[in-house]
Amino acid sequence: MKRTILSLIVVATLALSCGTSTTTTSSTTTTSDHQALAEVPVGISTAFTAQYPTAANVTWSPYDKVTVPIDWEMTGWPALGTGDYVVQFDMSGQKYYAWYDADGTWIGTTSTLMDHNTLPQAVRDMISTKYSGYSIEKIEREIDKTRTVYEVKLKKTDDDKVKLHVSETGEVLKEKLKD
C-alpha cells in the first residue's frame, strides 16, 4: 500500500514538474516546450526535439502542399503527402519551418533571411555581378541533409523578376523567370 501511494506521488510530481502547456486549435497544436500533438507520431516529434532542442512556439500541422512557404519544385526535395508533417517554430528570434515524412525522416528546414547582409559573400557577389540592377525581394535559407541553398527572389521591374536557387559558394543551381 505504501509503495502504491509513494508511486502515485512520484508520478504526480514528475507530471507537474514537466510544466507542459498544450493548446489545441483545429488541426494544429502549439506547445511551450517540445511536446507534439497526439496525432503526430512519436518518431517524428522525437526526431524534431533532438534536432531542434531550443525551438519555441512549436506548431505542428499535417503537410499541405497548398500552404508550403517555399517553392517545393525549386528545392528538389522528395514529394510529401498524407501522413507527413510540417512544424513551424521559433528559434534564435527567427521563424522556421521543417518537414518530416511519416517515418520521422527529416526532409528539410527553411527560414526567411531578414538581414540580407548575412547572405554569404559569394552569393552577394554573384547577384551584384549577374543580376546588376535587380533588387532582392525575399531570401529563404533552405537546409537539407546535404546542403544549404538560398532561394532568392529578385526584381528589376514588375515584368522582370527572377527566382534563383543559389549554393553557398554563389553557384546558380536553378533559375526561374517570372511565372
List the helices and strands and how they pair.
Blueprint (H helix, E strand, L loop, with lengths): L1 H17 L3 E4 L2 E4 L10 H10 L4 E7 L9 H4 L9 E7 L2 E7 L5 E7 L8 H10 L4 E9 L4 E10 L2 E8 L4 E6 L2
What does this structure look like?
- The chain is 23% helix and 39% strand.
- It has 2 domains: 21-107, no CATH class; 116-177, Nuclear Transport Factor 2, Chain: A.
- Strands 1-2-3-4-5-6-7-8-9-10 form a 10-stranded antiparallel β-sheet.
- Residues 1-36 have low confidence and may be disordered.
- It is an alpha+beta fold.
List key phrases describing it:
179 residues; alpha+beta; Nuclear Transport Factor 2, Chain: A; 2 domains; 10-stranded antiparallel β-sheet; 4 helices; 39% strand; elongated
How would you summarize this macromolecular structure in one to three sentences?
This protein is α+β, with helices and mostly antiparallel strands and 179 residues long. The chain has 2 domains: 87 residues, no CATH class; 62 residues, Nuclear Transport Factor 2, Chain: A (Roll), CATH 3.10.450.360. Helix content is 23%, strand content 39%.
Number of domains: 2
Which parts are unreliable, with pLDDT below 50 for 5 consecutive residues or more?
A: 1-36
> Span from first to last CA?
72 Å
Overall outline? elongated
